Amino acid sequence: SHAYWVFWYHLEIIPSETPAVEPKPVEAPVSTLPPGIKGRRDFDSDEAYGEYVKATIKPNMKVRAIAEHGKVQKDMTGVYFGTNDGNPPCFVIWDADLGIKEDDIVFLDNVPAEKKSHAYWVYWYEVEIIATETTPEVIPPEVKPPEVIPPEVKPPDEVTPPEVTPPEVKPPEVIPPEV
User: Fold this and answer.
1) CB 3.0 to 4.6 Å from 126: which of 7, 31, 51, 67, for a disulfide?
2) pTM (predicted TM-score)
3) What is the pLDDT of residue 81?
4) Where are the beta strands (DSSP E) in the chain?
């Protein structure tokens, strides 16, 4: 077939009873998120979604990558292992072997040796929680992810405010006007 350029005024629109191409019905996407878990589309920004994931996710929850990051490809699945609040902060042991070597990344303590090549760090907003139940078959119970313990907040030592003496104020000197 050939294509030619024509002026718009050389064209005529002919109404038709049936469209040339039948439109396909739009199917609503099936949610794969567990009940009560929000997805990225529920938030206005990556930052807001990332804060939600950080507050919601627990070690051993199943996750899916919703963005590419380094060796992690979109739609890869894995298990959240923990965080060290570094950058990126979300440590996942992915189902796929990424070929990670001992010197490639910083590992959290207690990562099973046979899973180190599957481990990679991503940002909170780059994963979605796809299962809230724990998956002990991925991380054996004897290997516990490190708990992030907030530093202990100590009350300040009792401080006595210093005594403040107001300065002595002298009345202004009045000079009588000269006559």
Assistant:
1) 67
2) 0.60
3) 95
4) 62-65, 77-82, 90-94, 119-122, 127-131
